[in-house]
Amino acid sequence: MTVRRIEGELPVAFRYTPGVGNTAFFEALRDRGTFLGSRCADCGVTYLPARIFCERCLAGLVPDTECGPEGTVESWTVARQDVDGRPLDPPVTFALVRLDGADTVLLHRLLGTADIGGRVRAVLRPERTASILDLQGFEPV
Amino acid sequence: MTGRRVAVVGAGMTRFVRRAQETGKELAFQASRAALDAAEMKLGQVDAVCLTSAPDAFDGVHRKGDYLADGAGGWNKPFIRTYVGGGSGVFTAIQGWYTVASGQADVVLCVAEEKMSSCQPHPQGAFLTIFDNILERPLGPNLLWIFALEMNRYMQRYGLEKRDIAAVAVKNKRNAADHPAALLGQADISVDDVLASDVLAWPVQRLDVSPISDGAVAIIMASEETARRLTAAPVWIDGVGWNLDSTYWTNRDLSYPEYVEKAARMAYGMAGITEPRKQIHVAEPYDPFDYKELHHLEGLLLFDKGKAPEAAAAGVTARDGDLPCCPSGGLLGVGNPIAAAGLMKIAELFWQLRGEAGARQVPGTPERGVAQAWGDLMQVGTVVVMGAGGAGGLRGSGLAARPHPSPLRPDPSGQSAAPPTSMLGPTSLSDAQFRSVAGAVDTPLDVLYAWDPGDAIGAFLDGLRDGRILATTCASCGRTLVPPRAFCERCFRSTDAWMELAATGTVETFSICHVTWDMRPLDEPELPAVIRIDGSSDGGFLHKLDEVAPDDVRIGMAVEAVWRPLDDRTGSILDIAYFRPRDPAPDRELVAAAAGEMTP
Fold first, then answer.
1. What's the total number of domains in chain B?
2. What ipTM was assigned to the predicted interfaces of this complex?
3. What is the pLDDT of residue B1?
4. Which of B430, B441, B498 to mutate to test the interface with A (most CBs of A within 10 A)?
């Protein structure tokens, strides 16, 4: 019996638009260098980045709550390989950071070292384009 | 009666738009919020959430169920996503029904979302792998082929006129002009407009087809006791049914949706409906293409086979006709965010049966309606029968514990002064706005697949390389299968023997296609066709015709394979270069004599 490999692709690309909540977040980050969240007073939860609804009670929310720019490291890891398994040199440290005032965390680069519970501050790029990369990362305070 | 009695107590939807600024989560939220507001309920009253969304490849999020869960109110709740392709929207109501009927939940929020605008260059790309990767994709198929091939077969079988079929597109786009959520409502469209629109894949023209859309719909279902506490006018789920036809789409009866009939009989049986033409007062059949509404109305046993088109042309299915069909405006008019469009039909029946459909309200007092959707590889039928009041129902019983909530809510779009449905957002983006939106990220789906054809198709491909058409047979049902299968899916046993058939056959149906899968025009039209090999059973397989003028192709035409030169063959479906008309017509006895049993 012939063994065959019939190859094929799925020739699609995606244009992900940030939606209403994340657009407010990115525009505040780009234009004012601030971190915009939204707060559900009933549930006592502040979401960052901003959302237009509370996932706990489905109330509509307004993106109007500024958080940070300092925060706390909730966890971290050091990546030593890229997604294809090739060595990363130098290694890259990623952290989950809860910005002051927020109840949710952001995933981003840790510029330096900090333990869980350690205090960090956001480092912004001077030229910003409304992207999560407008934030360079977090550096220890 | 099966399980506990279940009612719909609230419904909400977003507008359907070509490109929403909102994310899928935000669309799901808007619809869910609208449904809760319309029912004057809080999320805390919801016990479980049933969600649906069609292929992950539309949104480009390969975990759409849990991704959408927060916008659908699924946080910390029993949550399930179901998926039967285009049939999903109606099926999620069936899922909601058995979640309540089983006693596992008293109140369920059912949410259907679709965001097709993310998929580039065209959402059809997400459908390419529904074709058989080994036997069909090498032919460069276009999703429209399936519909065009089916529509042509339907027209030929019953001698139908395109003009009569186009009446459905006209009716639905006109109906949609009264729907504040509609994307393509058009009060002044005519049959001539449809017949003059671009031919995409004959007989399918531009205005025969529903639009690519973003949107979401939500309904709330409750057990009988809870429903009576929540509203004075619950709309009962009287019957549910679903059924799947052969997974080999070219083997189906392309002129009649057997799967819809089987699903309808299941739902009618549960609902105690014995004479659907008398007992169904309003219908929302699935209408992604105009001919599909007709196909489905026949499958729903509401018209005789082949008779729905003349009824549509005569106005029987108009909003004020004897059997109003798609009074919402359907997918052709309101729009087709795939999974959401199906649940929109359930929401429309809810509003119609409560007399709350505003300008869309059908005359009289409709007491029973049927909603239906269709999907997977175009072979699933999902059917829900809904009833207002009725035996054991509330209408007139005075048991209401609270006033009947008004479904009227302001429409922030300002497009309609008095929306008859509960609606929020979304924000519609132009293509230019979509291209320039801040923070957008473009990502190709950078994956490559490698498929193994398996034993039976592997042997078939070996045969093609040698210029032979191989089949397997099932001694139990007597079928001869081309392409061959290792097992008979009907008798559920291994097939018995191999045989070789002559490389001649018949055109079961065909199309004249003028566009690529991503809707770019072709210089020369292609002629996809379903070819039944002489001596084989049940339909045929997909291939192309050539050496014939498009206008000369006929269903039933005798054809023969034209093989690639031996040195160019690779063991591929493309080893048959194409089929061409056979002249003179085949001698059936010679074909039969040439077909001898053999083992590859």
1. 2
2. 0.90
3. 53
4. B441
Lookup result for tokens 């030169």: B565
One domain for residues B310 and B340: yes
Confidence of residue A1 (pLDDT cuts 50, 70, 90): low
Mean pLDDT of B407-424: 40
Residue-averaged pLDDT of chain B: 91
Chain A neighbors of B427, CB-CB under 8 A: 20
Residue B191's identity, in one-letter code, is V
CB contact under 8 A, A55 and B32: no
Interface probe, candidates B14, B17, B26, chain A, greatest A C-beta count within 10 A = B26
Interface probe with B: pick from A2, A5, A16, A54, most Cβ of B within 10 Å: A16
Q: Is A86 near chain B, with CB under 8 Å?
A: no
Residue B464 included in any domain: yes
Do B419 and B529 share a domain, yes or no? no
In a domain, B139, yes or no: no
Q: Do A17 and B434 touch (CB under 8 A)?
A: yes
Tell me if B580 sits within 8 A of B559, measured CB to CB: yes
Contact A19 B22 (CB under 8 A): yes
Among B119, B437, B450, the residue with its CB nearest the CB of A14 is B119
What pLDDT does residue B212 have?
Answer: 93
Cis before residue A49, ω within 30 degrees of 0? yes
Residues A12-40: tens digit of each pLDDT: 899 999 999 999 999 999 999 999 999 99
Sheet hosting strand B119-120, strand order edge to edge: B119-120, A13-16, B441-444
pLDDT at B423: 55
User: How far is the first Cα of chain B from the last one, in angstroms, to the nearest whole number?
Assistant: 53
The model's pLDDT over A29-68, given as tens digits with 9 standing for 90+, comes to 999 999 999 999 999 999 999 999 999 999 999 999 999 9
Cβ contact B440–A16 (<8 Å): yes
Q: Does residue B419 have a pLDDT over 50?
A: no
CB distance A5–B452 less than 8 Å? yes
Q: What is the CATH number of the domain that holds B40?
A: 3.40.47.10
Query: Touching check for A83 and chain B: CB below 8 Å?
Result: no
Q: Say whether both B401 and B483 belong to one domain.
A: no
Evaluate whether B497 touches B472 at the Cβ level (below 8 Å). Answer: yes
Q: Are residues B298 and B398 in the same domain?
A: yes
Instruction: Round to whole Å and give the CA distance between A134 and A126.
Output: 8
Q: Do A4 and B57 touch (CB under 8 A)?
A: no
Structural domains of chain A in order of their starting residue, each with its CATH number: 19-140 (2.40.50.140)
The answer to whether residues B72 and B99 belong to one domain is: yes
Taking CB atoms and an 8 Å limit, are A4 and B452 in contact across chains? Answer: yes
Task: Evaluate whether residue B122 is within a structural domain.
Answer: no
The structure tokens 């789906």 sit at: B445
- Enter the tokens of residue B200: 């995409």
Round to the nearest angstrom and report the end-to-end CA distance of chain A: 66
For B125, the closest of A10, A16, A21 (CB atoms) is A10
Q: Which domain holds residue B524?
A: 454-594
Q: Do A57 and B44 touch (CB under 8 A)?
A: yes
Neighbouring residues of B60: CB distance < 8 A, sequence distance ≥ 6: A12, A14, A16, B118, B119, B443, B445
Q: What is the pLDDT of residues B438-448, one digit of tens each?
A: 899 999 888 88
Same domain, B80 and B212: yes
Contacts of A131 in chain B (CB under 8 A): 439, 441
